[in-house]
Amino acid sequence: MACTSDSHEYDRLVKENPKSTKILAEGDSWFAYPRRYFAFGSASNIVDQLGKKKSYVIYSCASNGDEAVTMMSGEQKLSLMKRIAANPYDIMLFSGGGNDIVGRYDFDFFVKEKKPGMKVLDCVQEDRVARKLSQILAAYEELIERTMEFAENKNMMIITHTYDIAIPSDKGYLLFDIFPIGESWMYPLLLKRNIVAPADQQEIVREILTRFKTMLLGVQVKYPGQIIVVDTQNTLKPNHWRNEIHPTPQGFKIVSDLIAAKIDEVVRTKR
């Protein structure tokens, strides 16, 4: 039906569509990645894809580059809590943790140089990855428990996802899919760490993101009825990636369809 980042527009849409599923979206570039021509072009993130559903009204405060830990700190945390305390959303969509892991100055912090005799997974900095995952875990627990405490709608469900296994490549952000204005960083970093074979590069990424997924699924077990984790890993094919960490519009549609199915299931159960 609609997706907006304007509070007044959201209120108007809800008033015009009182039976709609009211959704708050907070997250990173998987919720906010720009269309090819910014205002025009195919829906290039999960929220824009979901915004095409006739039964949803979505307010999005997602922003490219956001980390889970950052979203649950300072002004961002305050803004989010105020919003859920003042609006009876049915669903909160949350996309967080990807930038904490594969972001610049994080991913390279987790991978050491491959030397003769080392297996590729020996390059994973175990203590550093574990510490980062514990920080992300704490952010999710904060999100859930604060939602339980402050949300106007005590039945609001949090729905999140596990991303997919990013494919290291030299593709960065292309303005209009033509002009390069942002570089990739996983791929050149892995080359610098002497991890050259594509299969080895993929194994490193898969290992770290699989641990992230395992952590999130544990959160779902700890907080039943409060959060749903949609396992979106191993969903996309290589041609569904626009660059090394973002799917194409078609790829985002595939992921968003999985999330939409879970939203609709929750709404049917609640109503």
What is this entry, summarized?
It is built from 10 helices and 8 strands.
Describe the fold and architecture.
It is globular and about 65 Å long. By secondary structure, it is α/β, with parallel strands linked by helices. The chain contains ten helices and eight strands. Helix 7 packs parallel to helix 9. It has one domain (2-270): Rossmann fold, CATH 3.40.50.1110. The chain has helices at 7-16, 29-32, 46-50, 68-71, 74-86, 98-102, 126-150, 186-192, 198-222, 249-270, and strands at 2-4, 21-27, 56-60, 91-95, 157-161, 173-175, 179-182, 227-230. Strands 1-3-2-4-5-8 form a six-stranded parallel β-sheet, with helices on both faces.
How would you state the average pLDDT, rounded?
92
Whole-number total of structural domains: 1
Give a count of the beta strands, DSSP E runs of length 2 or more.
8
Which band does the percent of strand residues land in? 5-15%
**Sheet bearing the most strands, described?**
6 strands, parallel
Distance between the termini: 20 Å
Task: State Rg.
Answer: 19 Å
Keywords:
271 residues; alpha/beta; Rossmann fold; 6-stranded parallel beta sheet; 8 strands; 44% helix; 13% strand
Layout of SSEs?
Layout: E1 2-4, H1 7-16, E2 21-27, H2 29-32, H3 46-50, E3 56-60, H4 68-71, H5 74-86, E4 91-95, H6 98-102, H7 126-150, E5 157-161, E6 173-175, E7 179-182, H8 186-192, H9 198-222, E8 227-230, H10 249-270
Parallel strand pairs: 1-3, 2-3, 2-4, 4-5, 5-8
Antiparallel strand pairs: 6-7
Helix pairs in contact: 7-9
